Amino acid sequence: MKKLLSVIFAIVLILSTVPVAAALQYDFEDANGNKGRFYYEDNGDGTCKLTEYYGFSQSEVYIPAQINGLTVTSIEERAFASKTSLTTVSIPATVLSIGPAAFSGCIRLNSVIIGSGVRVIFNQAFEYCTSLTGINVQNVEAIGKLCFVGCTAMTSFRSSNKLTFIGENAF
Description:
- By secondary structure, the protein is mainly beta.
- Helix content is about 10%, strand content about 35%.
- The protein has one helix spanning about 1-15; strands at about 25-30, 35-40, 45-55, 60, 65, 70-75, 90, 95-100, 110-115, 120, 135, 140-145, 155-160, 165.
- The strands form 3 sheets. Strands 1, 2, 3, 5, 6, 8, 10, 12 and 14 form a 9-stranded mixed beta sheet that branches. The chain has a 3-stranded parallel beta sheet with strand order 4-7-9, with no helix packed on it.
- The longest helix is centred in the first third of the chain and has 15 residues, at about 1-15.
């Protein structure tokens, strides 16, 4: 029994020294009085990543370039997934990557403005955004697999010669 308690104490001691990233929150109200909340993590270098969005029936979301003095550089996995009221998203030039399934299942999303800083759109980022009619990825260098699968309304896709990788079954 004494040995078991020693092992448990050692594990607790080790785990207490492992840093855990805490999700911070940023509440906002837009010009139309719509309220929302971004959850984010501080990267420790003056930047942050968006980990989740919670909107109150908001259809248009303008992701800020900065949150509490931190530059927003990425949208993480499933951050906006299945937000069915979302119709428009504007991503600032500070964002470098859009994570896996970040907007997956946003069935009313029909307009996405991708900032000039975005270089990578990961797997399934916009899968099953069935209202998305087109997208312009002028500075994107890589698009992951299944990125736009199920985007049945898409009729326009614009890119540049910077796009050097398109994943399997991206469309």
